[in-house]
Structures are given as structure tokens and as C-alpha cells.
Amino acid sequence: MKRLVNHNEARKKGAKTKKSYHTFKMTDDLLEVFIFLKAEEEKARKELGTVYYDSDYVFKRKNGELYYPDYISEQFRKVIKAHSDLPQDIKFRNLRNSGISIYLEQDMNIKSVQQWARHKNVETTLGIYAKVKSFDAEEQIMECINSSLPLSSTQKGE
Fold first, then answer.
1. Element housing 142 (H / E)
2. Which of 16, 71, 73, 157 could form a disulfide with 67 if both were Cys (CB 3.0 to 4.6 A apart)?
């Protein structure tokens, strides 16, 4: 099935809210990627001339046309489907959730995770992802209690 995209419509819609626009810090490695993409864009623009679709988007087809909005999710689904050893119910959005879970699992500062996830408040982040931490919480509490007890190792073994 071929999809048609009205590029102007995608541009007009933009982000859901003003707060959805966000600036991220860029690493040197990421900067190199963007410089490479810009050089590739210039080559394609010269090769295709007036056929090139001009826009200020970074990720687009070689001829400058924009990808349809769910292109990445669609491609991700195809990759997952091609690998039967992977969970078939995983969605592209799950990668974001997994990232947040991993950050919390590694005890990253909750406020930093909340800001990275762009949740309105810490409670949202904790409410959604607290289940990840709760599993380890019991074990950590038991370890803390055990290490606090004044029992020697010989008394524990009796």
C-alpha cells in the first residue's frame, strides 16, 4: 500500500504543544552525523536540481521528500517481524520506555530522567516507571536490614 503525504500539512501541524518543542545538547559524534547528512543533502540537491523537494527537515528521503509520520514505527515493525527471536509485540515507542526504565534501574537522578522524558512532573515519571524500581526495592530493604542487624556471621549460620 502506497501512502501519500501532504508535506505542508505535516509542517503546519508541528508539535502537540509549545512545550513539545525541545532543544537537546549535541555530542561531537552527533554533530559529525549531522554534518555528514548536510553534505549528503547538498550532493542530492545538486544531482536532482529542480526535482529536489526543498525543506528544512533533517531526516528525509534522498530527493528531499518527507517521510510519512509513522515511517520509523513501520520500519521498526518490519525489522521485528523479520527476527522471530525478538518479542513480536514490541513497538518503537517501547524503546523510549525501555530507556527510561534503564536510567531508573541505574539510579540516574529522577529529576534528570523526568526532564529527559519531558514529563510534566516527577510524579508522572515515578507513577509510570516505579514498578521497575519496586521489584528491587524489597531486596534492597532486606539487604539493608540484614546488614544493620548486630548478628555475627556465625550467629546467622546457627
1. helix 122-148
2. 71
Query: Cell digits for 4?
Result: 501519500
Distance (Å, whole) CA 52 – CA 147 = 67
| DSSP code, position 68 | P
Q: How confident is the model over 88-115, as pLDDT tens digits?
A: 998 998 888 888 888 888 888 989 988 8
What CA–CA distances, in Å, run from 10 to 5, 41, 61, 68, 120? 8, 20, 15, 8, 25
Q: Given this model, what pLDDT does residue 138 score?
A: 66
> Which ranges constitute the DSSP H helices of the chain?
7-13, 28-48, 71-82, 92-105, 110-117, 122-148, 153-157
Domain residue limits, the chain: 1-69, 91-149
Retrieve residue 72's grid coordinates. 520509523
Amino acid at 108: M
Distance of CA 80 to CAs 70, 84, 128, 156, Å? 15, 7, 25, 49
